[in-house]
Amino acid sequence: MSPFNPEPLVARLFRRVRKRFDLGMQEYLTALDAVKGGWGDSPDHLRQILPLLWCHSLAEQGEFALIWESEMAATKEPIASKSDKPQGKSSRKDDPPPLPPTPEPEIPIAPSTSSTNFAPLPVRSPTLTLEEEPSDLQLHFPASRRSMTYTWRYLRRLVADGSVTVLDIEATVEQAARQGFYLAPVYRRREVNHAHLILLIDQDGSMMPFHRFTRDLVETAQDQESSLIEALGVYYFHNVPTDEIYQDPHCTKPVPFSEVLATCDDDTSVLIVSDAGAVRGYRRMERVRATTDFLMQIKQRSRLVSWLNPMPTERWESTSAEIIAYLVQMQPMDDTGLSQAIDVVRGQALSNRHSESTL
Amino acid sequence: MVIKSDRDRFQNNPKLRPKNAHHDSPQDLEPYVAEPELIQAVNLAIALQRPLLLEGEAGCGKTRLAIAVAYELGLPFYRWNVRSTSKAKEGKYEYDAILRLHDVQAKQVDSKLGRDPANPKDYRRFGALGKAFQVEDCSAVVLIDEIDKADLDFPNDLLTVLEQPWEIEIPETGEIDDQVIRAKVPPIVIITSNQEKGNLPIPFLRRCIYYYVSFPKDAASLQKIVAAHYQTEQKAKRPSTPLIQAASQRFLEIRKEGLLKNPGTSEFLDWLEALQNFGSKPYSVSDLAKGNGIPYRELLLKMRDDWRKYPSAS
Asked: Is the per-residue pLDDT at A161 higher than 70?
């Protein structure tokens, strides 16, 4: 038997999984290190080693197993492969679905494992074929819960007027040195985040697919421990905020919009989450007009207004979203968009990417 | 790449423990049955000097593995239990400035403190990583338990410590620049996490070797675990083979039926212990096999709805 040379195989596999699993050169070199150290002297051995190094969840391990199978099937075409893979159309007549390419019968497995075990990546094309470069097919999915939690932290206006509980070691030492004796520790006031945020969230209809993400957004903002936003108002509306908006996601507890506006001062951050018609791709003047009215009302109170659109920027074109993006800082709801939106609502405005590119 | 001697190769055989084990090594035998893939993952982590991240159901032996590795290899073992308030620095060292200040005053009254306020090194206490970095002749095993419990940034703060050049700076005592504490032998770091979602930060995950510890799939592997667990017990206390078989069958059935919270290996061992030794004589094998209710269900069912589903067997 010819000696097994793992390096080309490692390289091929790495190219296939790199973008998927978000790996860097370091991971590839580590795999080569492991191979050189005698860890991958047979294909079976290698199949066990690589997931340990490259996969970081059960779902990824499952995905890797599929990629491995297809890679092995491709390389071992002439030899009878032991993994019982169909070698062509003709050799497998008993198989019920007569699908031509090799790995296709296994495809239904991939979405099912990822949907059950891999919560943060729920949007993935179910018709993914392994032969294509998969990263190109990965759909736009809005920001992850983790990045939302991170981003909320930047929304802060720290003022030291909390309870007097923080021990100031430096001041204590300094006081002891000045007095010549140590009397009592010096305490400072705890810093409190005085940020005031109003979240306005479009609910139902075209926003239905994004409910999961808007819910995540609300929950991460409400999580006192990590977000530290002192005053947070979450309100819901359908398509366009009217005179009444709602306090609950099911739109059953109405509250007058004017009342919400009354809580708004020039330090209040307002974040609107809506697709602005970009999901269905229509452009309706009445929606634009109603939205303009509503935006003007807010802008009279606060200039810290930003709009998060769960659709990617390319899809705003020739919809109402494109027009509204001229009126307000509109950002797509991905990681960068999210942090830019937070920059805007905390008063560190950047230029609007969309308006810039279209102007 | 450094291929280490056999001393640093985990083989899941506690008998291989060297005679001259380090004094911080666990003293009591840790019975552990590791899957071959897990053994491989441990050895890969040792060879590549990368942290081994273990995820999986609660009670499936994530924490125990670290102890088993330290026991078998005779290496010092330092455990760091992460809490929601843990900071990355605590694993390295803690510095007690207030105690030092106190000592300056107290010294005028009592000169036998055992600590000298002029020497800042008397006021630093090393954490698990700090201790591990100072072991000179062998690697130490560091267990960072339940890393997901800590603050969001915690894993990222750890990154720089857990890689080349393996050093810890202590600015308070002037141990910086060329005075840093540098590990002569990098430690073996084992990290456990309960979170089944990939919720740890990506840069952190990239540096880890990832292994998912799953529950034993068949009765045979459960029985192996039982055998390992009872190997040091006296014969009278050991459950009989039919009881072990019936119990593992029944246990797997219960798990298969889909509980809200599945019991893990540790619960199984507790349950078996109760079946064997709690009553005046071991629980009847035939009663257990019949499957009317669950004896000692309070050991296995931890949710109200699960609890209601199964009657107790008296």
From this structure: yes
Report whether pLDDT(A353) > 50.
Answer: no
Structure tokens belonging to residue B41: 């993952």
Rounded Cα–Cα distance for residues A191 and A183 (Å): 25
Give the number of other CB atoms < 10 A from CB of residue B286.
Answer: 8
B165 cis-preceded (ω within 30 degrees of 0): yes
Which of A39, A52, A119 is the closest to B197 by Cβ?
Answer: A119
Which chain B residues have a beta carbon less than 8 Å from that of A152? Answer: none
Which residues make Cβ contacts (< 8 Å) with residue B111, sequence separation at least 6?
none
- Residue B154: HSE in the Cβ half-sphere, 13 Å Cα cutoff: 24
Would the CB atoms of A57 and B44 count as touching at under 8 Å?
A: no
Between residues B74 and B5, the one the model is more confident about: B74
Predicted-complex ipTM score: 0.71
| DSSP tag of B34 | -
Facing B101 at nearest CB: one of A48, A56, A173: A173
From CA A204, how far away is CA B53, in angstroms rounded? Answer: 40
A119 to B3: CB separation less than 8 angstroms, yes or no: no
**The pLDDT value given to residue A112:** 44
- Contact residues, B window 183-202, toward A, CB-based 8 Å cutoff: 196-202
For β-strands B52-56 and B209-213, DSSP reports them as parallel
Confidence category of residue A120, pLDDT binned at 50, 70, 90: low
Please, are residues B123 and B174 in contact by the beta-carbon 8 Å criterion?
A: no
DSSP label at residue A279 = T
Q: Is the pTM of this model over 0.80?
A: no
Distance CA A252, CA A237 (A): 10
Q: Give the pairing type, strands A231-237 and A196-202.
A: parallel
The predicted pLDDT at position B237 comes to: 82
Q: B290 to chain A, minimum CA–CA distance in Å? A: 34
- DSSP secondary structure code for residue A104 in this structure: G
- Closest alpha carbon within chain B to A55: B210
Q: Which amino acid is at B308?
A: R
Amino acid at site B273: E
Closest-CA residue of A relative to B208 is: A53
- In degrees, rounded to 5, the angle at the alpha carbon of residue B208 between the alpha carbons of residues B206 and B212 is 110
Q: Give the gap in angstroms from C-alpha A291 to the nearest C-alpha of chain B.
A: 37
Interface residues of A toward B, Cβ cutoff 8 Å, are: 22-24, 26-27, 30, 33-34, 36-39, 48-49, 51-53, 55-61, 117-120, 145-146, 149-150, 167, 169, 172-173, 176, 181-182, 185, 226
Class of residue B266 by CB neighbours under 10 A (exposed 0-12, middle 13-18, buried 19+): middle
For A289-335, the pLDDT digits (tens) are 999 998 999 988 888 899 999 888 888 888 888 889 988 889 888 88
Q: Does the structure show a pLDDT above 80 at A92?
A: no
Instruction: Give the residue ranges of DSSP H helices in chain B.
Output: 36-48, 62-73, 88-92, 97-106, 128-134, 154-159, 202-207, 219-230, 241-256, 265-277, 285-290, 304-309
**Rg, Å, chain A Cα set:** 27
- In tens, the pLDDT along B238-266 reads 888 888 988 898 888 888 887 888 888 98
